[in-house]
Amino acid sequence: MIIGPHSAYRWARPGALIALPALLAPVAVILARAGQGPLLLPVLATAVIYPVMATLLLRGRRDAAALAALLWTAGLSVSIIAFTRRDPASMERVVLNGPAYREEMFAYIRSGIGREGDPARFVPQHALHLLTFSLLSVGSGGLLGIALGAILVGYMSFYVGALAAGGGAPGTALLLGWPPWAILRVAAFVLIGLCLAEPVLFAARGWLGRLPAPPAGPRRPWYLAAAALLVADIVLKLVFAQAWAAILRPCLVP
Hints:
Elements: H1 5-8, H2 14-35, H3 40-58, H4 62-86, H5 88-92, H6 98-111, H7 119-140, H8 143-165, H9 170-176, H10 180-207, H11 220-248
């Protein structure tokens, strides 16, 4: 008998399933920190969300899957920020691209000059991330897209934790280190990733001889909502990035 994620979580109520990845995200960070390997974090973080996400999608609960993914993102980010603030050196070996992104952002905050405030540089980077994420999601039923998302959230959160550890204004760093446009981008990726994951998941369920629940409504409104979030991301970043750097500057001790 083949036990899939739907069978494995059949006992769980939807509310418990939705909250489970967020509750397990700190455990993934703790284990990755103990293992001190840069690939452990995305692997373990993916492991705590993907079965739940797949189960909810196969039940036709795309909305619940979206909420679970957003809560998981928050749990993962808060955990990485907390551990990085406490011991940045140990997390440097855990978060892929964390130290490089921290240095890039610290330099931008100090000077106001860098990719973060240059649309000719950040728009192509965002487009590359979106394209890579979309291809990975559609080709793997969302599995590899989640892994890439864990990497992106990981190094952004590492930077925020390092900013808070700088000692200048930790409260400001914790409250504003994640700019609102980046949060919108994360939400857009979640909406896109779920919709792109469904075809492979439903096909795989069919190959196993079990008919899935129908998709949770048309996907077009989800793609349109994601597009609106991505446009808002770029507009807000264009308008407020320089001012945001000035707000965060006191976080860095001279």
